[in-house]
Specification:
Blueprint: H1 2-26, H2 28-32, H3 40-61, H4 64-72, H5 78-102, H6 104-110, H7 117-142, H8 146-170, H9 181-197, H10 199-204, H11 211-245, H12 247-266, H13 270-289, H14 296-319, H15 322-325, H16 341-357, H17 359-363, H18 367-392, H19 394-419, H20 426-446, H21 455-476, H22 478-484
């Protein structure tokens, strides 16, 4: 189907640079967690600060990426639409920048690290550079400028990686106060690269404030912002809660060490997360463009089925080969957390399905339902983490993530079928997810120790993977379709 090929092409073009960039960035994790770099407690501090950054990014972007795509397709004056969206982002960013800089010492004290004042100021500028650049990058996607988009993305990430390597290999010293600061300094310089490379677009911008258009955009965006905040709660609040709730039994270093172990192992769900990120870059404008297609529901259904095939296959590849993937974290001080990886992988499968489904409330102009679901998930996240963390530590956070993402997926499907029904092939989707879980369970039952590498275990897991691929080929019959095509 040509429309599916178009989506695949857009995923490769726009998502490809993001995948490569994120992959390169994730490859810093083995560097950060190596024995000569940061301790679990130091890596925990890094993770906690970036968790707070995620909250601010939602507010600073103010849902304007999705709002821009929604309004620009309906607008006759597309430049005015962009200028209005960008003006909103600029106003919000200016207010937040001034506030963060003014209260930087108070924020550092609240974090439990008074010496972090300079980092708070750096992050204020990182946030502004990233938020304003994100909307400019969205405009490049709309204008179909993939080469420029990819160049800017990779320049930003390449700069960050090169500076990290230089700082850590040549300047990092044991016992020095300015250690994790090198990570943040590299990020600050790299973030400045995007606005520099987008300066021509910035010069074309004209501050615009059409009261009617601005109000309409705000009304559309506010549920997205609420949902975005709730989404960030679901994604990163566990690190914050771990750092706060585990202080009493072991002190701040112990708590941040547990966050470091949890965060490092969370990164092993990297491939599913990367695929979901790339998919979302291409899928959102693609789904909006299909709105007038009479066969749009068939397209959405097929996309969902193929999406589930990919993410469940990634789940099996990683979870069945933890004895290999553990070397992504080269310091065995972090390996005690490998037991949470399969749980988080399947949680991200559910999250991916939820993101795929979420197009219904955007197409139906019922973004409030996205907010309802995300807020419900956030409340459940808080309740489960607060209940589980004192008992089982970061394992409780992993279980909470699994339960929350599954619940959000089910809730989105329920409301979607009421307000914008799309007939997904639930039989196929359920079969692929169930088969992946059964094959993983078989491996766990036969081999108790999945962490220590053994050729016999590797061979058995390879057979299980082939069984899953065989199930896919039997159901989808790609060769028969190729012959017909």
């Amino acid at each position: 189907m040509s429309t599916l090929k178009k989506l695949a092409g857009q995923t490769a073009i726009y998502g490809g640079s993001t995948i490569i960039g994120r992959l390169l960035n994730y490859l810093l994790v083995p560097l950060y967690t190596s024995e000569f770099a940061f301790t679990p407690a130091e890596y925990g501090s890094i993770s906690i600060l970036y968790s707070y950054v995620a909250f601010f990014m939602v507010f600073l972007l103010f849902g304007m990426e999705t709002t821009f795509f929604r309004f620009v397709n309906k607008s006759e004056d597309k430049e005015k639409t962009f200028n209005q969206a960008f003006s909103i982002v600029l106003v919000v960013n200016a207010i937040v920048l001034v506030t963060l800089v003014a209260f930087s010492q108070s924020i550092a004290n609240w974090l439990g690290h008074p010496e972090f004042k300079i980092y708070v100021i750096w992050f204020a500028f990182i946030l502004v550079f990233d938020a304003t650049s994100s909307l400019l990058m969205a405009r490049l996607r709309f204008l179909n400028q993939p080469k420029r988009f990819a160049f800017i993305q990779l320049s930003n990430i390449g700069t960050n990686i090169i500076l990290n390597l230089i700082f850590i290999f040549y300047f990092l010293q044991d016992g020095a106060e300015f250690r994790i600061g090198y990570v943040f300094l590299a990020n600050l310089i790299a973030s400045f690269i995007k606005p520099v490379l987008l300066y021509k677009d910035i010069l074309k911008f004209k501050f615009t404030w059409d009261k009617i258009l601005a109000k309409t955009m705000f009304i559309f965006a506010i549920p997205l912002v609420i949902g975005g905040f709730a989404g960030v709660v679901n994604e990163v609040i566990d690190r914050v809660l771990l750092s706060k709730m585990l202080i009493d039994p072991g002190g701040i270093e112990y708590a941040e060490g547990q966050v470091g172990i949890y965060s490092a192992n969370y990164k092993l769900s990297i491939l599913i997360t990367l695929f979901i990120t790339a998919f979302r870059y291409a899928a959102e404008p693609f789904f909006f463009a299909q709105e007038k297609n009479k066969d749009k529901n068939k397209v959405y259904s097929k996309v969902m089925t193929y999406f589930v095939i990919v993410v469940t296959l990634i789940f099996l590849v990683i979870s069945l080969n933890l004895s290999i993937f553990k070397w992504f974290i080269p310091n065995d001080a972090y390996w005690e957390g490998l037991k949470i990886v399969p749980i988080l992988l399947m949680a991200n499968v559910f999250l991916g399905i939820y993101y795929n489904q979420s197009i219904w409330y955007k197409l139906a102009d019922k973004t409030k339902y996205g907010a309802y679901i995300a807020v419900g998930g956030a409340i459940l996240t808080l309740v489960l983490n607060i209940s589980f963390i004192p008992i089982i530590g970061y394992m409780g956070s992993a279980i909470a993530t699994f339960v929350v993402y599954f619940s959000m997926m089910v809730a989105s499907y329920y409301f979607g079928q009421k307000h914008y029904p799309i007939k997904y092939n639930l039989r196929k989707i359920g079969l692929y997810v169930f088969s992946a879980l059964i094959l993983f369970s078989i491996s766990k039952l036969i081999v108790r120790d999945q962490i220590t590498f053994a050729w016999s275990t590797f061979a058995m897991n390879a057979i299980l993977l082939l069984v899953f691929i065989g199930i896919i080929l039997f159901i989808e019959r790609p060769l028969r379709r190729l012959k017909k095509g």
